[in-house]
């Protein structure tokens, strides 16, 4: 099964480079390109690619606004944000806007291809090292005294709350299962229950929810993110 892609970046050489790398993969097909956020909305809406690679800083309309509008319009695509370390806070806002994940622009070709496959399958992608920087940047801006706990948290069992905390620290289902001494299948069930009870779309939203509601606070435990 072929995964259809649209590449959105204001630099022609970057788009050409990504196209060359990705079209070398037999299961990936680049069906369109956009050089600014408005073009991205128009092309993605028309072509409905499985995955949209979205740069943040683009003219006319930035990738953040374009992602939000695509999600709000219900366009059937998974947005994978491409970024550099100096765009951390923008990335966090993009995830809040509905992106399925993010990856560094200088990631190896095989890592980019793997990330696209993960997102295309409906999973979210959190690059742990970058996640910690993004979350830290967000939390530093927020006053802990003004944070309120969402009433939906009361719906979670103690074990589900524990799973949410581990998930928010970037642990995979396999790692969570090992930490809690349960099977990966049981962990998947817990994660699914957490997302359902909290009304969240994916693991990315769960991470954001956990930090915004004080379930996890950056500190020593975050060293597990690598």
UniProtKB/TrEMBL annotation:
This is Response regulator transcription factor. InterPro entries: CheY-like_superfamily, NreC/VraR/RcsB-like_REC, Sig_transdc_resp-reg_C-effctor, Sig_transdc_resp-reg_receiver, Tscrpt_reg_LuxR_C, WalR-like. Keywords: DNA-binding, Phosphoprotein, Transcription, Transcription regulation. GO terms for biological process: phosphorelay signal transduction system; regulation of DNA-templated transcription. One of its GO terms (molecular function) is DNA binding. Residues 4-120 form the Response regulatory domain. SUPFAM superfamilies: C-terminal effector domain of the bipartite response regulators, CheY-like. The keyword Cytoplasm does not apply. The keyword Cytoplasm does not apply. Residues 149-214 form the HTH luxR-type domain. The modification 4-aspartylphosphate is found at residue 55. SMART domains: HTH_LUXR (SM00421), REC (SM00448). CDD domains: LuxR_C_like, REC_NarL-like. The lineage of its organism: Bacteria, Bacillati, Actinomycetota, Actinomycetes, Propionibacteriales. Pfam families: GerE, Response_reg. Signal peptide: none annotated. It comes from Nocardioides agariphilus. It comes from the Bacteria.
């Amino acid at each position: 099964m072929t995964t259809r892609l649209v590449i959105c970046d204001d630099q022609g050489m970057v788009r050409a480079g990504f196209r060359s790398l990705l079209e070398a993969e037999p299961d990936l097909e680049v069906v369109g390109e956009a050089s600014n956020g408005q073009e991205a909305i128009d092309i993605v809406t028309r072509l409905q690619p499985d995955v949209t690679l979205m740069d943040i800083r683009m003219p006319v309309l930035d990738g953040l606004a374009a992602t939000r509008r695509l999600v709000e319009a219900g366009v059937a695509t998974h947005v994978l944000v491409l970024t550099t370390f100096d765009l951390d806070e923008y990335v966090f806002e993009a995830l809040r806007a509905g992106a399925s994940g993010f990856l560094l622009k200088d990631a190896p070709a095989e890592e980019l291809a793997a990330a696209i496959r993960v997102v295309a399958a409906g999973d979210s992608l959190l690059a742990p090292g970058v996640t910690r920087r993004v979350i830290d940047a967000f939390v530093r801006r927020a006053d802990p005294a003004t944070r309120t706990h969402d009433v939906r948290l009361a719906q979670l069992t103690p074990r589900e709350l524990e799973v949410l905390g581990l998930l928010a620290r970037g642990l995979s289902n396999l790692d969570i299962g090992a930490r809690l001494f349960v099977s990966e299948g049981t962990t998947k069930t817990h994660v699914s229950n957490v997302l359902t009870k909290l009304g969240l779309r994916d693991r990315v939203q769960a991470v954001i929810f956990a930090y915004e509601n004080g379930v996890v606070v950056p500190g020593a435990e975050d060293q597990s993110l690598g």
